[in-house]
Amino acid sequence: MKAKGGLGKGLEALIPQITENEGDVVIQTVRVSELSPNPYQPRREFDSDRLQELVESIREHGVLQPIVVRKRAVGFGYEIIAGERRFRAAQQVGLHELPAVVRNFSDRDAMEIALIENLQREDLNAIEIAEAYVRIMEHFSLTQEEMAVRVGQSRSHVANLIRLLSLPASLQESVSRGTLSMGHARALLGVDQAELQIQLAKRIESEGLSVRDVEQIVQENRNVPRETNKTDKRKEEREKRPAVLQEYESLFRDCLGTAVRIQQGKRKGKIEIEYYTMDDLERILAIVHAEHR
């Protein structure tokens, strides 16, 4: 398997080339009933059409490439590290056994392999990738910078993906389904109220707004407030505030993936961090904890 560029170590580094002649690698037959999916599988949905194509291929040619598994830490059987699509297709075909490479993998490797395998096939949507990043970061106390190195991406790329998780659940679902593009979703992050994000998303669909259109709308009226006097007041407040505080707010937003406001008094101030669900709050706490280890 040839790894695509920009994916860190890639599968070849995590799973050395598998051949029957390798001294430390043995291909054996395992019963399908003994297999369970990778608990760290980042993909929530499997494309039914592509899975059916694999079913037909296996029905005609059999399973040509072994799956990769590890023994369960507790109980009997194996966890799938790479090859869950083949496992699912084999179940549909009615196979009782599969060729498999059994190796010892740490939880960290199991997580990374599942993520990288899907990234190399471009099977994951942006929300699934973001959730996988956060899961790995939380589990192993990684910073965004360390996560970026693991997957061969820039820190800003990782941060921008994670920021998508601050969108309302309905908009995250739209990104997952592909009805809301990554570009549109990122533009909506400039609006710091969930209700207004949803309203603007409806306009994107009904009016066919481009990403540039949305960016202009957000720029012209960042919060799309309902009352003009609120607009004037907030605009006046922004103009009075030091530019450095606005810059700090922007840095916080990029790091935490949510709206952040800094209020400065004569001698002290406060920082307000928005969250929309308890999961979102836990995500922010994990980022803060990881960045300061």
Automatic annotation (TrEMBL):
Biased composition (Basic and acidic residues): 223-241
Keyword DNA-binding attributed: yes
Native organism: Ferroacidibacillus organovorans
Family label: Belongs to the ParB family.
SUPFAM superfamilies assigned: KorB DNA-binding domain-like, ParB/Sulfiredoxin
GO cellular-component term (any): chromosome
UniProt entry keywords in alphabetical sequence: Chromosome partition, DNA-binding
Compartment list: Cytoplasm, Nucleoid
Record's protein name: Stage 0 sporulation protein J
Source species, domain of life: Bacteria
PANTHER family according to UniProt: CHROMOSOME-PARTITIONING PROTEIN PARB-RELATED
